Amino acid sequence: MLSVIVPTHNRRALLEKKLRLLEVQRGEFEVVVVADGCTDGTLEFLSQYRPPFPFRFLELAPGLGAAGARNRGAQAATGDILLFSDDDVMPQPGWIEAHQKAHAQPRVVAVGRLELPPELRGTGAAELRGPRAFWWNVTGNNTSLPKALFEEVGGYDPAFSGYGGEDPDLGYRLMRAGARLVFLGDAVAVHEAFDYRGRALEKARQAGAAHVRVWRKHGDPRIAWALGVHPVLLAIKLALLPSFKGLLGARGDYELAYAWGASDAWNQSSAS
Q: Which residues does the UniProt record annotate as the domain Galactosyltransferase C-terminal (predicted)?
């Protein structure tokens, strides 16, 4: 059986939409919702929700963050396979079945196809259309793996309690553990709630800083190159993007904020 792990924080409407879409999925699965400090009526909705699939929800004190919430959901899951998918990621038809079929072989980490609504393309949010998946593509949006493998590598690192870092850190450890990463073109999900008008640039700065922390944690230069936070790459970005970011549209602002966040993290670590 497959366990869908859904962390959520004060996004009741999106969560309800996701759960309604899961109601029409085929396959054997359960859903574990982890409500992290919700104050918007989410808990009241979950306590009354009666879906056609096995379902449970956990209530956590606020501030645990995505990594900690996903770990709690994984601990409560009863399925052999964990499928991590955030509350703003909407599964399309055949999503569950595609992830289940991917695990006919052992030690598979399956990364599904991630798309954006048309109005969000080019805003800085990432899409993943394949045809291959790499360790840095492992995210809490659309990734499944055996529960035993997740536990073997220690799950998510709760030290990444802010925005960013927890996904590539897990992906890197899975790669080092010999996991087989596969891309699932049939496991399509749509990422609906990327906030490019609000906190997107601040989140980009936080992600840049967090990815520097991933490199410093493991000390492998491949991490810095893959995540775009190597000092050589940062020097090039910070020299060119202020003048040419307009050529990239909204993506240019996102990339510059990401580079500034990573550069600040390097400067702070050097000073200490």
A: 130-182
The Cα–Cα gap between 243 and 135 comes to 32
DSSP letters for 68-98: HHHHHHHHH--SSEEEE--TTEEEPTTHHHH
Radius of gyration of the chain measured on its C-alpha atoms: 18
Query: Which of 191, 216, 243 is a domain's end point?
Result: 191
**Which CATH number goes with the domain that contains 98?**
3.90.550.10
Beta strand 29-36 pairing with 89-91: unpaired
Classify 180 as helix, strand or coil.
strand
Give pLDDT tens digits for 191-214: 987 555 557 788 889 999 999 999
List the Cα angle 80/95/151 in 5-degree steps.
25
Q: Is 107 helix (H, G, I), strand (E, B) or coil?
A: coil
The domain tally of the chain equals 2
Contact in structure between 22 and 51 (CB atoms under 8 Å): yes
Do 103 and 208 have their domain in common? no
- Taking CA atoms, 109 is separated from 5, 7, 156, 231, 253, in Å, by 15, 20, 14, 30, 32
Same-domain pairing of 79 and 57:
yes
Q: Is 46 in the same domain as 117?
A: yes
- Torsion-angle region of 249 (φ positive above 0: left; ψ -120 to 50: alpha; else: beta): left
Q: In this structure, what are the phi and psi dihedrals at residue 5, rounded to the nearest 5 degrees?
A: -105, 120
Q: Could you tell me if 143 and 220 lie in one domain? A: no
User: Which residue, among 202, 135, 216, has the nearest Cα to 170 in the 3D structure?
Assistant: 135
pLDDT digits (tens, 9 = 90+) for 89-148: 999 999 999 999 999 999 999 999 999 887 766 555 677 888 899 999 999 999 999 999
Greatest Cα pair distance in the chain: 56
The encoded tokens of residue 139 equal 């995210």
- Residue 114, helix vs strand vs coil: strand
